[in-house]
Design a protein that fits this description.
445 residues, alpha/beta, 2 domains, elongated
Length: 445
């Protein structure tokens, strides 16, 4: 997920400070702790995702610490709340590398904040691994920047292929948040890939985050007679668009991206979103034993079903810890090199490998929304290469495996999992008990 509005002036001023502390900053190479910095949105517009991600990271750290730590050293998490703000993210990461002596950094959910922070980590030569920032530009900031999730061109291509091949659709409409580059980025990919697969985008309509009246756009869409509508936006807007589309008699399937992943999608949209599909990083209803163990352990600890960002963060933490272990060092370059050679890591979101761009190559889930807000795994799509679209280094071949019978109700308490003070050796400056479940909360990673 992403939004990319960056405070370039502040970031530039912080780069100079970070450049003075290469290789992990003061204290990174000594002591009996492995210090890992975590910056997440524990308050603000994306607090729901930041809290669940932090929970996943803490759970992973506790598991490793309980098993003896990393090469005999306990993990110490330094968790900081960036308040859903890119400038604050850059400030936090500067402190991580200049004062706190972290060996590695995990964050953020939103690409805007990761992009603001990445040059600082890069200049300091401290590895930064984002669990869920999907903007392709994130890892272009340097060779110390990694991601353990798919990128937007991959999920956009998966959306287009699913509609064209699995659903057999030929005439697509697009509803795009014109001021949100998560939405416009996916729009670009769909416009490139869908026609290659025999489809046509017959109409594109625009809206802005927070709009509540979509009558004009939907009237135009209905008149164009599409057989599928792509809505590459976030769950709050999507739910309202779906309700108004159904009220106008538009019955064609709706297809979206990982920005739909919230219990609020059904809470707001109700029956209007039933029969819709969206891409996601994992499903808590996957029958894989390691997924079910993760879900059970998370529910026991936090009282809710883990969302996709809890899972991607849990995997990211274990990938970082594994790299530190294999490096057998707290030196930034050694950890960076170990991350780069990660191969076939058995995550709960799938088997993870890094390509030459330090982006994860892994499966994509196509999720179907069923009656009662239940989710089903419709297909697993493995995109071969970095991505399908031209210029992203990938091919157009995919392997799909349909499993439409795995269903359950998503966690209705996804905003209740905010225990910022739990977890082993956590230095937190957070307010994770924010009310993030309001219907108008906009998820903007």
């Amino acid at each position: 997920m992403k939004r990319t509005f960056i405070a370039l002036g502040l970031t530039a001023s912080l780069l100079a400070a970070a450049a003075c502390q290469p290789g992990g900053g003061p204290g990174a190479g000594g002591g009996d702790k492995v210090k890992i910095g975590v910056f997440m949105s524990l308050t603000g517009s994306t607090a729901q995702f930041g809290i669940s991600s932090t929970n996943g990271i803490k759970m992973a750290a506790d598991e490793v610490n309980a098993a003896g730590g990393i090469n005999g050293k306990q993990i110490e998490l330094n968790v900081q709340d960036d308040r859903s703000d890119a400038q604050e993210a850059a400030t936090i990461v500067t402190k991580f590398v200049t004062q706190d002596g972290v060996a590695g950094i995990i964050g953020e959910v939103a690409s805007s904040r990761t992009i603001a922070a990445a040059p600082i980590a890069q200049n300091a030569k401290v590895p930064l691994l984002t669990p869920s920032s999907t903007n392709p530009d994130v890892t272009k900031k340097g060779d110390y920047i990694f991601r353990s999730c798919f990128i937007d061109p991959v999920q956009g291509a998966a959306m287009a292929q699913f509609a064209a091949k699995s659903l057999g659709k030929k005439r697509a409409a697009l509803m795009v948040d014109r001021k949100n580059d998560y939405s416009t980025g996916l729009e670009k990919v769909i416009n490139e890939v869908f026609p290659k697969l025999g489809g046509e985008v017959v109409i594109t309509q625009s809206y802005q985050e927070g709009d509540t009246d979509f009558n004009g756009q939907l009237t135009s869409i209905k008149g164009s007679n599409p057989d599928v509508i792509f809505i590459p936006g976030y769950y709050g807007d999507v739910a309202l668009i779906a309700k108004q589309a159904r009220d106008k008699g538009i019955t064609v399937p709706l297809v979206g991206g990982d920005g739909w992943d919230s219990a609020q999608l059904y809470t707001i949209g109700g029956q209007a979103v039933v029969g819709s599909y969206f891409t996601n990083h994992y499903s808590p209803y996957d029958t894989d034993p390691k997924v079910q163990k993760f879900v059970k352990d998370y529910q026991t600890r936090y009282g809710s079903i883990p969302d996709a960002l809890a899972a991607t963060a849990y995997d990211a933490a274990h990938i970082m810890f594994d790299a530190v272990k294999r490096a057998n060092s707290l030196d930034g370059k050694a950890i960076r090199d170990a991350l780069a050679t990660t191969k076939d890591f058995p995550g709960v979101t799938g088997t993870v490998n890094f390509n030459e761009n330090r982006d994860a190559v892994k499966p994509i889930m196509m999720i179907r929304v069923d009656d009662g807000g239940k989710y089903a795994i419709q297909e697993r799509v493995v995109v071969e290469g970095a991505a399908m679209p031209t210029g992203t280094g990938g091919g157009a071949n995919t392997n799909t495996n349909t499993n439409a019978n795995t269903a359950a109700t998503p966690g209705a308490n996804t905003n209740a999992a905010g225990n910022a003070n739990s977890g082993a050796n956590t230095n937190a400056n957070t307010n994770a008990n924010a009310n993030t479940g309001a219907a108008n909360t906009k998820a903007t990673p």
